[in-house]
Amino acid sequence: MRRAILTQIDLPDFGDPRSEPVLGPEIYARRHESLLRRMAEARFDGLAIYGDREHMANIAWATGHDPRFEEALLLVVPGRRPTLFLGNEGYPYAEVAPGPFDRVLWQPLSLMGQPRGSYRPLDDLLREAGLRDDMRIGLAGWKGFETEDGVFDPQWFETPHYLVETLRRFGPVSNAALLFMHPAHGLRAINEADQIACFEYAGTKSSSAIRRFIHDVRPGMTELEACRNMGLDGAMQSVHINMSSGPRARYGLCSPGMRIIERGDPIVLGFGLPGALNCRAGFMVAAASELPGGISDYAEKLVLPYFTAAASWYETVGIGVSGGEVYDAVMRHLADPFFGIGLNPGHLIHLDEWVHSPIRRNGGHRLASGMALQCDIIPATGTAYFTTNIEDGIALADDALRAEIARRFPEAWQRIEARRAFMTETLGIRLRPEVLPLSNMPGWLPSFWLNPGLAAAMR
Questions:
Q1: Cβ(232)–Cβ(210) under 8 Å?
Q2: Looking at residue 319, what DSSP letter applies?
Q3: Are residues 261 and 379 in the same domain?
Q4: Which residues are CB-neighbours of 132 under 8 A, at least 6 positions away?
Q5: What is the pLDDT of residue 100?
Q6: How far is residue 261 from each of residues 221, 226, 252, 284, measured CA to CA in Å?
Q7: 338 Cβ neighbours under 8 A, 6+ residues apart
Q8: Can you give the pLDDT at residue 150?
Q9: Range of 382's domain?
Q10: Can you say whether the dihedral through the CA atoms of 443, 262, 337, 150 is positive or negative?
Q11: Is the pTM of this model over 0.85?
Q12: Domain tally, the chain
């Protein structure tokens, strides 16, 4: 019978990107046609997509424009070229976006105190962009309200009140977030080869930053000094650096500060770029004998059962598998309340870190080719045992999609194949052929960060 063990593991250098995949105008043109078809199926006569710096994924998917200091609004009406409403700073910046749209300056999207001399009422501009009376209008922001059993409320809006009220002057308005974010058939649930290549690029960079940190962190450094070892290069972040040590580490989401890292500390680091988030957690020790009192069995009690569950996640996930099956594969190892698993053990990832999740108790939605998924199983023991964590992304790709990625993105494909070999041959995790690891530390779980060569594996 297979079991998890700690063993000396040489984590290979899978390489860093030498080129960056770019989504071109043809991608956005095809997305626009897909969006029009979904609008027709939903019986929307018009669709408004709202975004801001923190919630830009839907509007960026449609246009390639990511709002920076301001909000943005895209209006889509069949038979018309989409209109992108922008503030003073977003208006010129949107010239670099490759999506199909006409720009309109609407200065209330600008920051307070900036010029408003070109102001016109929003309803007049919307009418010029194609809205008419008695239309059925969809409004997509960045989420909606769902009950525990998945019932979606179309009259729950997280977008600005003024926008909802203005659109209602033209007809009934419904929350349209699920057009993009439904866990099985949302437009952002299934990705093109180009988008997967972009996610692999992001996953390579973000995971390499974390593995550099783990290999170089030492007691006596401040948290900020340790983070310099990540070697960040200015790429746009989707998740700020979550790094803390000592008493704050239990909260997970704290930012690094001037605290000096001490030997024996619990420590956690998470970091994300659009399309990727990676996280690891452990202790600043070289061996179990250095752990705080009372938890010398940290590996046996927490780490090894957790790794067994993570391996089951990787071995179960696949095309046609239901989210409920993946949930059960994990929870059969971590159902004890000690592990404190409160969130879904995995979810869809995109430009935003969490889109939606088909992976839930009794989840009937089936995983499909083109999905990008995050292995995201978070124990919250609430005890001195702290936590352990493997958080990395994968994509699912059928034969045709794998062949396209291999042909068009050979550099990424070489890394993917090397990661698969490492997980299978070194870690003992048996992947289905459609599972494409996107991280440069795939399945790697070092628990004692002063001895990162000691990691978990299945034997």
A1: no
A2: T
A3: yes
A4: 45, 170
A5: 96
A6: 6, 9, 16, 8
A7: 301, 381, 383
A8: 85
A9: 4-16+189-458
A10: negative
A11: yes
A12: 2
